Amino acid sequence: MAGVMRNINVIYRCGAINRKQKSKEDLDGIYHSYIIAIFHHPGFSQDKLSRLICVSKSSVTRHLAFLEERGYIVRRQGEDKREMLVFPTEKLEKAYAETHAISKEWREKITADLSDKEKEIAASVLEKMACAARNLIFGAEDEE
Q1: pLDDT score recorded for residue 107
Q2: 39 and 92 in contact (C-beta within 8 Å)?
Q3: Is residue 96 within 8 Å of residue 35, measured between CB atoms?
Q4: Does 54 have pLDDT greater than 70?
Q5: Domain assignment present for 20
Q6: 29: phi > 0 → left, psi -120 to 50 → alpha, else beta; which?
Q7: Does residue 53 fall inside a structural domain?
Q8: Which residue segment(s) compose the domain that 47 sits in?
Q9: Do residues 136 and 76 make contact, with C-beta atoms less than 8 angstroms apart?
Q10: Residue 119 domain-assigned (yes or no)
Q11: Mean pLDDT for the stretch of residues 13-42
């Protein structure tokens, strides 16, 4: 099983390098998850965003401040005054289009030698593993 985790890490790190090399945006690879999550979940709280992308609350706060300073997001106070909601700007929407295209190309290239059935099995197994990991850390109630 250790080989599985090592290979997942290799795929993740190589994907991050690929995104950095191909991106025209002024963002490091770490912001990829934020771009995708905020685009697909506008108005999510910082806390929900933290659980969705599996990043500490303090890291989310710091990274969102960076994105806000550069015009990728706006944050607004929620109905619960303690809650900050995150919304994409037009700049983030443009970054999402580029990020999505780079990610799609990457997925197609690294799975090119797999049959459709193998792709299906890999996706299913990884989904189960990700679900188990989230449940261990956050509990079953956080599934989106």
Answers
A1: 95
A2: yes
A3: yes
A4: yes
A5: yes
A6: alpha
A7: yes
A8: 2-138
A9: no
A10: yes
A11: 89
Print burial letters for 38-58: b (CB count within 10 Å at least 16), e (below 16).
Answer: bbebeebbbebbbbbbebeee
Residue 129 half-sphere exposure, CB side, CA atoms within 13 Å?
10
Strand partners, 39: none
Over the stretch 86-95, which tens digit does the pLDDT of each residue have? 999 999 999 9
Q: Decide if pLDDT at 2 tops 80.
A: no
Q: In this structure, what token pair is assigned to residue 46?
A: 């910082």
The answer to whether 101 and 108 have CB atoms below 8 angstroms apart is no
Under the banding of pLDDT at 50, 70 and 90, the label for residue 141 is: low
Domain count within the chain = 1
19 in any annotated domain: yes
CATH code of residue 11: 1.10.10.10
Enumerate residues 6+ apart whose C-beta is below 8 A from 111: 119, 122
Reported as type and span, the H/E element at residue 85 is strand 84-88
Inform me whether the pLDDT recorded for 29 exceeds 80: no
For residue 90 the two structure tokens come to: 């037009």
- 98: which 2 tokens? 């580029």
